[in-house]
Each structure stands twice: as C-alpha cells, then as structure tokens.
Amino acid sequence: MTKLSVNLNAVAQLRNRRDLPWPSVTGMARIVLDAGAVGVTVHPRPDERHIRRSDVLDLVNLLRAEYPHAEFNIEGYPTPDFIELIAAANPHQVTLVPDAPEQATSDHGWDFVTHKALLTDVVAELAAPGRRVSMFCDPDASGAALEAAKAAGADRVELYTGPYGACYDNSEAAVSALADLAETAHAAHALGLGINAGHDLTLTNLPAFQTIVPFVDEVSIGHGITADALIFGFAEAVRKYLGALGR
What we know:
Oligomer: single chain
Number of strands: 8
Strand order of the largest sheet: 1-2-3-4-5-6-7-8
Strand content: 15-25%
Order of helices and strands: EHHEHEHEHEHEHHEHEHH
Helix content: 40-55%
Number of helices: 11
Largest sheet: 8 strands, parallel, barrel
Distance between the termini: 7 Å
C-alpha cells in the first residue's frame, strides 16, 4: 500500500515569518508520525527560507531518539553543500530535484538523458547502506528518459504531480494528466524502478490518483496537508490523507 510522508516545509515557512521557535518543526513531526505517517520530508534550500540546516539536524536527533522506524527523506539539488548535509544527516532517502535556487517550489523533473553523467556521479557520492536515491521525474517521461535514470543509479523516481494538481477545475484535463502519470508509472515499474509521487496532491484529487496510477510506493505531501491542518488539525489531516490512500 502507498505510504505517506509529510513534507514539513510549510511549517518551517510559517515559523520563519517571526523570529520565534513556533510552530515547531520537530513538534509537528511528532504529531504527524504519531498520527500514522511513515516519515517526514524536508527540502532545505540554500537561502533557508523554510527548512534550515539546523532543522534537518534536529529532525535527525528526534527520529533516532523517538522514532527509529520512521523514514527521513531529504530533497534538494545536489550542490556540494547539499551532499555534505546528506552525509551529516544520513537520511533513509535522498530525492534529487533539478531546481534552481530561486525557484519557489519544484516545477519539473530531470532531463535524465542530458544530465545522466551528473546524476551518475552524484549517486556514486550519495550511495550508502540502507539509503535509496529517488529522482524527480516529469509525469510524461519517455522510456528512454527512465532508462537513463535507471542507468544513472536511481532506486526510485518521484512523479511530479503538479500538472495533475493544477486540473482541480478541469475534469477532462485531469483524466489526461492521470493517463500520463499512469503510463510513466508502468514504464518505470517495468524497469525495476520504485515510484514515489508528490506535488499538489489533495484530499480531493488523491483518491483518483490512487485508483489510476499503479505501483506508487510513497506520496510526499506538504502544502495540501498543511492547508487542511488549518481546518482539521494536523493529526486529523494526516488521518484523512491516510484514509484517501486506503490505509
């Protein structure tokens, strides 16, 4: 069954509006893990506009001390600083994204063919026992692109579901977007790649995604679940997303 990892970036972004220690990133991690999420995700950016390096290390300490079976997923562009942070944090999963530093959020997958040499070198640096590497993937990636991702050393690809999420007011476009995602998932699975997914998944669109797109190991959800937490509270929002996943 598809697992849920909660992205805590929006929590950190809210905290950073004030020079105060709340809302607490580690405190929210406790809440979502106690409510049934299998892990937490963070995407530290160079300007630390939401998740900070100190948050990453605080989460490492929390998970090791209190949630040894929870998964820690760190996303980012593979700069030397990012690779150094991965070495310090030793997360269970690293998700490589092709974002420029100034991007507000991830909005596309890797060009696996063009960047195959870069990604191969990065995977060689990141490889460690018990750690997998996932790579951000466009929802309509070709077979050749997925083969390049596999050859570069990816254990999984993360389907970028932003275009599907943008179809919230257009049911016909949503059907087409889901077809692209499902085709890519089938092709990735055939190559032996695991499949993650994330971006603008919500309680409204997650059930159809779950029904149509096969083989998804894990979804990483941040913005939608944080928005719903304003209504339901974080623990109940997590439970509702788990219900939408059929868990």
